[in-house]
Amino acid sequence: MIREAENLPETWPAIEEILIDDDNRLWVSTIVEDFDIYEWWVLEETGELITRFEWPRDEPVEVVKNGYMYTRETDEETGLQQVVRYRIEMTEGK
Questions:
Q1: Do 45 and 5 form a contact (C-beta atoms < 8 A)?
Q2: Which residue among 20, 45, 68, 78 is least packed, with the fewest CB closer than 10 Å?
Q3: DSSP output for 28-83
Q4: 9-55 tens-digit pLDDT
């Protein structure tokens, strides 16, 4: 997919992880100066940037599927981990 992409940026930040969702979009977590977060880039198959967003490093994104992003979060009091599901909406023009 990356080899066939047309509009990839000339330079990339340091990458932590790359996921591919069920719509063949690339989800790329990038390493930024703030060690508490990753900056996520969501790209079309063509390499076109759809959006960027910041997400806590301690809540790793495990999978993106069927319009949901699933993360693994740890309860600070109990230390127990749970999977949390977030609804994703991507609208044109934003």
A1: yes
A2: 78
A3: EEEE-S-TTEEEEEEE-TTS-EEEEEEEETTS-EEEEETTEEEEEEE-TTT--EEE
A4: 677 779 999 999 999 999 999 999 999 999 999 999 888 889 999 99
